[in-house]
Design goal:
214 residues, mainly beta, five-stranded mixed β-sheet, four-stranded mixed β-sheet, 1 helix, 50% strand
Length: 214
């Protein structure tokens, strides 16, 4: 490689270092990825800035697999921590995201880190019954269209939770897939004119919905 090319690469590298702050080691200290916690728990997230350039603040937010936002906050002093409470009616994966605002940075890429934990039911809480959403016992659809089933579980702690997703153990079966199919998360696909029954099951609890395609 010629001297001219080496000088050119050094200039490019210097320019990148000036534009992008150092963000080696920016990571989430707590909670650990994959940690199982009970619904309703108070969660404390903490960021280790590592070798990141001096931070003005760290922005946090947390959300569920259904897109529900559980909260957001800002920490301006180390240790960079943020506390939020999981709702009692949510079970499933919870994503916690943190982004650092580097002191004096106007452009460039902010250091970021994400962990996912699992909100689970307390051991003594059991499923009592399941229901579908309001007016969802009967679907009247046109072929080629889709609709979504929503399933709710009533639990022994008195709380009703959305258990529509397959990750909650809910399964769906259409008894005539030539009329309509239903995927693992409850989306109904109308195929051709006819009538079918969708059986919904979670553990030993069962309920059904009728789909009529015109």
């Amino acid at each position: 490689m010629s001297t001219k090319n080496i000088l050119f690469l050094l200039l490019v590298l210097a320019g990148l270092l000036l534009r992008v702050p150092l963000s080696w080691g920016f990571s989430m200290n707590a909670p650990a990825a994959g940690t199982a916690v009970q619904t309703g728990s108070i969660i404390t997230a903490q960021v280790d800035p590592g070798n990141t350039s001096p931070l003005a603040e760290v922005l946090f937010f947390a959300y569920g697999a259904d897109g529900r936002l559980f909260g957001n906050g800002i920490s301006v002093l180390p240790p960079y921590t943020w506390t939020f409470t999981l709702p009692n009616d949510y079970v499933g994966s919870v994503t916690i995201h943190a982004a650092g605002h580097v002191l004096g940075q106007a452009t460039g890429t902010a250091p970021e880190t994400t962990v996912t934990i699992i909100a689970a039911l307390p051991a003594l809480v059991s499923l009592i019954d399941i229901t579908v959403g309001q007016d969802q016992k009967l679907f009247v659809m046109r072929s080629g269209t889709t609709d979504r089933l929503y399933v709710y579980g009533s639990y022994s702690d008195g709380i009703t939770r959305d258990i529509s997703g397959s990750e909650y153990g809910t399964t769906y079966t259409s008894n005539s897939e030539t009329v309509a199919t239903v995927d693992a998360d409850g989306t109904i696909n109308a195929i051709e004119a006819g009538r079918t029954i969708v059986m919904i099951k979670n553990h030993e609890k069962k309920i059904q919905a009728t789909v009529v395609v015109r």
